[in-house]
Description:
Elements: H1 3-11, H2 26-35, H3 47-54, E1 89-93, E2 97-103, E3 106-113, E4 116-123, H4 126-130, E5 137-140, H5 148-156, E6 159-163, H6 166-175, E7 183-186, H7 191-199, H8 202-211, H9 213-236, E8 241-246, H10 255-275, E9 279-283, H11 292-298, E10 302-306, H12 316-323, E11 328-334, H13 345-359, E12 365-370, H14 379-390
Parallel strand pairs: 7-8, 8-9, 9-10, 10-11, 11-12
Antiparallel strand pairs: 1-6, 2-3, 3-4, 4-5
Helix pairs in contact: 5-9, 7-9, 8-9, 10-11, 13-14
Amino acid sequence: MTHRERILKAIQGEIPDRLPWVPRLEFWHRARLRQGTLPPELQSLSLTEISASLGVGCYSSIPDFADTTYADAMLDRALGIVNHPVLPYRVTLENVDRRIIKRGREIVVEYHTPVGSIRTSMIFTDEMLDSGVSVPWTVDHAIQKPQDFEVVGHIMSNLRIEPQFQGYLAHRQEIGEQGLAVGFLQGTACPIHYIMRELMPLDQFFFALHDEPERVHRLADKIAPFFQQTQAIGADSPAEVLMVGGNYDDSITYPAFFEKYIFPALRDYADELHRRGKFLMTHTDGENQKLFPLYRRAGFDIADSVCPYPMTRCTLNEIRTSFGEHVTIWGGIPSTLLCATSTPEDEFRHSVDAIVERYGHQTHFILGVSDMVTADCEWDRLQYITDKVGGT
């Protein structure tokens, strides 16, 4: 089988010829290029070619946001809006005057609307670039004071959202049988989750949700069409798998919050995709123990970037048991396992051997690294996993 065929077999509930092995290499690749420590034989290769040379599937669930020809790709990142050619849609801001100020690695954007103005700022630090990060850090969020809710609401009510499948199709063709090109829609699952993660500092969000819930929910209602339109485009797109939401944590997106806001959104979109013969992926890389009962009922098909002990409280066996036989785990190897400074060689080999022995001939399991292969990963350890998987 090809890597793409193995991935799809696992998602569909069948047992592939061997364990699919699809690590996320882009952060490691960017960091090593910047540091000048990329192995010489890999320096002229693309990520797809590097994956092929290593003998692994090419991860393409979350786009490489640094790899874009769009000049406006990250300008509206502090509004939660990113434009990238592989996304199945493109967003244009209308009825707003946008002023952009660039100061080295800092980007300041002022948005002037008929109902007021807001100012956002984002930055890349040396530490971020050294670790391969592709998305800038938000310094000044879009909502900093009560009046900003109305301004952001105006902006979100004046978005033009158009399908664009050409970039996705070109990307899928480039990857070919080396991997599965997932249609990425949003990193958040619903409008309230969007406000929490994209528009406000976390503490200020919870203060606002407690003290002024009507204001927060009015803004969520204005954001809702953005989700409806992008998800409709995703359902109509050529992608077999769509990615929505992620970065849940049972102390932040705690069970009552998740059940009220996130659970219905995932369930409804999963139902829509299933009617079309498609699959829903969501990014579950946090502490998930208290959320497992809700995950099982939410209807999504793939849990991306599953991160077990010692990076979270749950062992991989506990996670697999909690998900049952209907959710495909994509992940399973904590990134610390690949780093010599974190894990001795014998412990690394013992852990990998145990994972491959237990899951090497099961369905609904795609081996990957949670959350990604980091800059200090040892190339020999990646090769060891490849050799081990190939022997199953």
